[in-house]
Amino acid sequence: QSVLTQPPSASGTPGQRVTISCSGSSSNIGSNYVYWYQQLPGTAPKLLIYRNNRRPSGVPDRFSGSKSGTSASLAISGLRSDDEADYYCAAWDDSLSGWMFGGGTRLTV
Amino acid sequence: EVQLVQSGVEVRKPGESLKISCKTSGYSFTSYWIAWVRQMPGKGLEWMGIINPGDSDSRYSPSFQGQVTISADKTISTAYLQWRSLKASDTAMYYCAKTYSGSSNGGFDSWGRGTLVTVSS
Q: What does the mean pLDDT of chain B come to?
């Protein structure tokens, strides 16, 4: 069972905005940056958001991240069919001295 | 261009040993940590452990401590994940990933394509 809690699924129609939540605790999200990864079917994960709300070069501004307390969210606006993927949040955990991943959210468009 | 090239598909029997590799290029190997992440069939990502190739300082998830060994050879910019005795439950895709900063708690900005390990009698 993952320490970071995500909804197992999310859905939307093309053009809509969808948000995916990630809930943690004071030892992970509450005291460290949150990262989001996108895993398209049959491929390796890709960094989507780093340091809570920053986008690597090449990631469209349709993707945005936020964090408040021990929770974080990924928002995707202007949904496209090729956004269909699994999305994972992750954060360093000070108690574990290691990384925690969320269980993943499968987005259907 | 940063590249992490992982070794190919492996099929082993329970009890056998295995060492898979992650050869890197395009950046200073000793300046960034390398992590290993497991993905069992149809499941999510699990952090296994992480190594600093510069001094071989490594940390393991409690779930994998004692089950695997992570190592690195800085002369050939390659990280490894090793098992002494495989179990059927080790069947999974294994990814290596590089941190984007020089600390172990920096996120992973580059990933290998994965090595599929199948353990079956």
A: 96
Tell me: the pLDDT tens digits for A30-50?
A: 999 999 999 999 999 999 999
Single out the residue of A73, A67, A74 nearest to residue A31, CA to CA. A67
Is 60 exceeded by the pLDDT of residue A66?
yes
Sheet holding A18-23, edge to edge: A18-23, A71-76, A63-68
Q: Does residue A91 register a pLDDT over 70?
A: yes
Q: Could you give the CA distance from residue A74 to residue B105 in angstroms, rounded to a whole number?
A: 20
Task: Compare all CA atoms of chain B with the CA of A45 and give the residue at the minimum distance.
Answer: B111
Would you call A27 an interface residue with chain B, using a CB distance cutoff of 8 Å?
no
